[in-house]
Amino acid sequence: MRRLIREQIAELIKNGFKEAQTGGALPHFPIPEVTVERPRQPEYGDYSSPVCLRLAREAQMSPREIAARVLAHLPPAPYVGKAEVAGGGYINITLATDWLTSQVNAILEEGESFGNLEIGCGRRVQVEFVSANPTGPITVASARNAVIGDTLANLLAAAGYQVEREYYVNDAGSQVRKFGESLYARYLQALGRDEPFPEDGYHGHYVVEMAQQMAARYGDRYLSMPREEAVRALGNDGIAYVVEWIKRDLEALGVTFDVWFHERSLYESGLFDRVLHMLRERGYVVEYDDAVWFRHPDLESDAVIIRSPRIIPDPAERPTYFASDIAYVWNKLVERGFDQAIYVWGADHHGDVPRVKAAAKALGLDPARVVIILYQMVNLKRGGEDVRMSKRTGEFVTLRELLDEVGPDPIRFMLLTCTVDATIDFDLALAVEQSDKNPVYYVQYAHARIASILRYAAELGWEVEKPGDVSLLTHGSELALIRKMLDLQEIVALAATQLAPHHLTVYAKELATLFHAFYRDCRVVDAEQPELTQARLTLVRAARNVLARALHLMGMSAPERM
């Protein structure tokens, strides 16, 4: 595990302050936190710190003079090639070329673990994502949820957190009955019975198909039951059926879960009753209009926990989604002891965010431990034209159809390309286009090109696994590629800290671009320069490792041929 170069430079500058103060070059004053940034122009070096700009009053001298005295007392460091004062008092650091090239071997030594950090310090984090209602197949919108959540989990694990992935199965309440009534009607129709379909039922073609499969598999089994019992049984069986569909489709996308948590367990275990009792004792529960409400000063209005029997006759269906959320947050943070619970929700759930956080606070929990990521929807396009309906059924487009058309890697990459709060236009035609216009193809082709170079060298008799003299890597394109390879650690830290997985797609495209530039500018296999060839083959292998690592963090494959 490595420390970020940025952190090492910040510590170095801080030590420069301490040495300058100890030696009398600077007066004693509290040294502020040293921030280190990336300069916008490469001529200003690799890293820059503005720390001296705000210390003129404390030091009684100009920021430029402060920076000069800090640099004069900067301890030696192997990664510093040049340290200079710039502008009004910036400290600019350029990495040493010999240190940079030595990192090629360090990257190879770390292999698949390159990019891993310990900023999480082993803290336990749960990422709960997808959690689409188990009353129908996964849609394109839920596919974005899946990709965001799974990639976040990968990033957090790489950053040193203990991560658990969870799917929350909504199998309690009125939706089970509605789904059961829908299946019951279609089931009877499949058996040739005349049965009206409920107006508020699930009208999708998949319900017809499922009922036909049940009729073929079970015959008239459900006809021998009382109607209500048959509806409940079909609802539960149907949900189990759909959950298996969901599992298969998500696994095809490369998404698996450690836990499939069932909403009904919150009620069957008695947890909801216990948590509701806690809220009552603390004065956060009020009753009026025959309903039970949650009242908290952080909320503008009361939130219904249990609906009125005048509206919902069945007691099992009266608890709201919010009722389950209250018990669920207690289950996550107390009963299972996660340090942080991350939810990935669609933007249409924005109104639920303050309620869940207020509930956590009312239960005596730190609401900062509850992190809710809201993502925007996905617009399917084909050559600029909107695609709203399935070709097969005339209904919504499912993840399975998307997988069949474009495959998992384009789905994962394209659904990560924007920040979560931006709507994505997913172009089906572009996703399968084999050209540089397609970012998925562009990035994966870089990896395939690397593999091709190594195969070609091996066929010519080069020992491609033999370490080369990396100090020979002095060309500008070689050094630019190494710098970008080292940036993976920064990207993991940034994306994990900000919970922003889109940074990976940006990084992968930039790394691929710099590799293609290196390949254009530097002949890798050259019989007349055997030592340089061996060094460049070493660089190529390291680039393969880093690019594959970036792809794997996104849950994508790193193809050897394309």
Summary, kept brief:
This protein is α/β, with parallel strands linked by helices. Helix content is 48%, strand content 12%.
Description:
The chain has 562 residues and is an alpha/beta fold. It folds into 4 domains: 5-95, Arginyl tRNA synthetase N-terminal domain (Gyrase A, domain 2); 124-169 and 259-375, HUPs (Rossmann fold, 3-Layer(aba) Sandwich); 174-252, no CATH class; 435-553, Isoleucyl-tRNA Synthetase, Domain 1. The chain contains 19 helices and 14 strands. The chain has a 5-stranded parallel β-sheet with strand order 6-5-4-10-11, sandwiched between helices. A hairpin with a 2-residue loop joins strand 7 (285-288) and strand 8 (291-294). Helix 1 crosses helix 3 and helix 11 packs across helix 12 (352-362). The radius of gyration is 29 Å and the shape is flat. It starts with a helix and ends in a 9-residue tail after the last helix.
